[in-house]
Structures are given as C-alpha cells and as structure tokens.
Amino acid sequence: MGPKTLLRNFFSRRKTKVPGHRIAWLNQRLHDPNLWHFGRRSVAGGVGLGLFLSFVPIPIQMLLAMPLAVLMRVNLPVTFTAIWATNPITFAPMFIFAFKVGSWITGYESPTDGVPFEATFDGLAATLGDIWYPLIVGCFVCGLSAGAIGNVLVRWLWRLHLVYLRSKRKRSPRRPQQQ
Fold first, then answer.
1. Residue 45, class by beta-carbon neighbours within 10 Å (0-12 exposed, 13-18 middle, 19+ buried)?
2. Residue 45 · residue 75 · CB < 8 Å
3. What is the mean pLDDT of residues 22-50?
4. Per the count of CB atoms within 10 A, which of 56, 65, 116, 165 is most buried?
C-alpha cells in the first residue's frame, strides 16, 4: 500500500459546508482540492508547515495553521497532524532547545544564572520579560529548520518508495495476456 492510499484511508474527505454568513467565504477556499489532496507536494508542504508552526511559542498554532495552509495550498489534515509534534511531553524540551539556539545566535547571557525560578505568575512574567528575544529568535530558526527538513525528508522518502515500487514492478515476471 502506497503512502497516498494510506493517507487517503486514514483521513476522511471534507464534505460539509461551513455554516454562517460571516465565514461563508471559507467554503470556496476549504473545498480547494489541494487542501485535501494526498499528493507528494501537498503532503510534504503540510508536514513542513506543521513542523514550522509547532515551534510557535504561544498556543495558537491551530489557529495559524488553517489560514496558512489555505494560503500556501498544502494539505490541511497533514498540517494539523504535524503540529502535534508539540505536545505536553515534547513542549518543554523543544522550547528549551529553541531558547538555547536563540541565546547562541543572539549572544544572550542570562543575568539571573543561579537565581531560583519563582513559580508564580509574576515570576513567570519576569522571566519571560527577560528571555523573550532569544526565545523568539530560536523558535523561528528551529521552526524554519524543522519545516525544511520535514518537507525534504517527506519528498525524499516518498520518492524512494516510488523508486522501490517501480523496481519491484520491473522485477516481477509479467503474466502472458490471455485472449
């Protein structure tokens, strides 16, 4: 079973319309075949966009995913699925790594090394006020890197699978046609 068939079976097709006159303009855009097509370019673009958005440090990734997927015309369900790279288990390591990358790029050195973190809203606000710039830079760089690597990796693996299927088809003996 190829990746296209597997993805098509896993995700259902969009058949419903968006209710309400205020967002009815989305009906045309949401029924764009590229948003639901499981081709190599659409899926790879969805993975790339989803991995990029998974590094957005505020929890609005899903809200950003829909208009960006519509604008970029990539597979919407795959984009939503790739965003789940950020989950309660991976959230902290991803953003600590992004902060370290951003600190390295910006040359940031924390003036509060060794000072214990205060687990209150004021403590969190003070810490975020201090580290926001390296965190944003690191998230942007890590998001671009993850998105590009995910896009290229999906295209490469898909191509590798197609080459394998073609070689398998060439190796198999052809049955004589019966008349």
1. buried
2. yes
3. 79
4. 65
Query: Could you tell me how far CA 56 lies from the centroid of its own chain?
Result: 11
> Tell me, what's the pLDDT at 172?
81
pTM over 0.90: no
| Tally of CB atoms within 10 A around 106 | 14
- Rounded Cα distance, 32 and 164, in Å: 31
Return the residue matching tokens 């959230």: 91
Largest Cα–Cα distance in the chain?
85
- Per-residue pLDDT band for 35 (boundaries 50, 70, 90) equals confident
The closest of 55, 50, 75, 84 to 65, measured between CA atoms, is 50
CB 27 within 8 A of CB 35: no
What does the DSSP 8-state code read for residue 85? T
What mean pLDDT do residues 134-141 have?
94
CA distance 65 to 84: 12
Burial class, 130, CB count within 10 angstroms (exposed 0-12 / middle 13-18 / buried 19+): middle
Q: Tokens representing 58?
A: 């505020």
Give the Cα separation of 114 and 51 in Å (integer). 33
- Any idea which residue has 């259902």 for tokens? 12
